[in-house]
Amino acid sequence: MVKITYIQHNGTSQSFDAQPGMTVMETAVKNMVPGIDADCGGACACATCHVFVEPEWLEATGKRSDMEEDMLDFAFDVRDNSRLSCQIKVTEQLDGLVVRIPEKQF
Amino acid sequence: MNAEVIETDAVIIGAGPCGLFAVFELGLLDIKCEVIDILDRPGGQCAELYPEKPIYDIPALPYVTGQELVDRLMEQIKPFKARFNFSQMVTELRKLDDGDFELRTDGGLNFRCKVVVIAAGGGSFQPKKPPIPGIESYEGKSVFYSVRKIEAFKGRDILIVGGGDSALDWTLNLHPVARTLTLLHRRDDFRAAPDSVNKMRTLVKEGKVSFKLGQVTGLVGTDGELSSVQVKGPEGGFSIDANTMLPFFGLTMKLGPVADWGINLNENLIPVDTEKFETSVRGLFAIGDINHYPGKLKLILSGFHEAALMAQEAFHIKNPGEKLLFQYTTSSTSLQKKLGVA
Predict the structure, then answer these.
(1) B288 vs chain A: nearest CA distance in angstroms?
(2) Residue A70 and residue B191: Cβ atoms within 8 Å?
(3) Does the predicted TM-score (pTM) go above 0.90?
(4) CA B51-B286-B126 angle, 5° bins
(5) Which of A72, B174, B193, B223 reaches 20 to 30 Å from B167, CA-CA?
(6) Residue B296 confidence (pLDDT) above 60
């Protein structure tokens, strides 16, 4: 099992076991993490699962795809560590991953 | 609350192009319709989001704007005298024991009918509102999420935010009437038609439009009237003078009450068969963007086709056991009488 921690804008933190192969978004939705709306259900078509990846995890989570980069145009307060959580696949290497959730998706 | 119950053959939820054409197809089969829409006028997305934008893939109309398409559909369905119930959201939909449907709206209207056609597109489709502190007080006065009339922006200092087709299209369409126009986007890449991007870059080169890299962090103004916008750019913070801001961050699809009606949903879409476009509930149909079936394409033309097939089955629900004679409007006097041309 892989552990993922979601930190809300107000500092509240929740950790969940994630299954490799699922996405960081799916893990959040399954556990009803507030602030991950995921309107489009993971199709990279809505930018409502925007998260900030903690800097030490940037390398392990990989680069944004072109489609994700495009879709981030529809997110708010996009930073260097912005990702769409539906595009981060959970792997054994991500055990301990920490992501922060923006104050509002939109 | 209005206790009166409006009785009709069919209720169509959604007055977008597919809902409007459903009035036509049902009308040819003598099925009387009431149409309900959350907006204050017909057209759905065509009227609300891209009234002045061209559509190129309507058969036999090489070029038509969203509003023109709506106007033509309204003209086409006129003979059927459907009643429109605008600014109403259907909050309750129930199938009664006798097979009829009962609907209620947030405005207190009650309907009873044999057939319900959900043509609600993306549900209540709403532009994304950037979570900028205090933005609500500017909305409708100096911050707008859509353009209804270009003239309303004449002589304004406009800031357009975003990098998609809407942001680019409105940059191109509003710069001739604006006093100044600035386009703000977080990167120097655009997810928009390359032709629009090229045109925008030319305008920037000619000094007619200003392009800035960055993201909005705050709004400055009084009583809802914007005076400048604070921006975080790659090299730090700066300010853009503007009395009008148009943020284009796409749309949020909020399904709304459809999710509460006890229909089987699949990722916020309503599964239907491809023979009648009927849902899992007898007499309840879904056409246009809101339905789903293998191979579904979210095109207006697909919705028109779905409306025609739906109407055939709706006839059988209204007239059990009766045979339906298939006829052409070109040759059938009876259809032409219904259209008021014979």
Answers:
(1) 18
(2) yes
(3) no
(4) 40
(5) B223
(6) yes
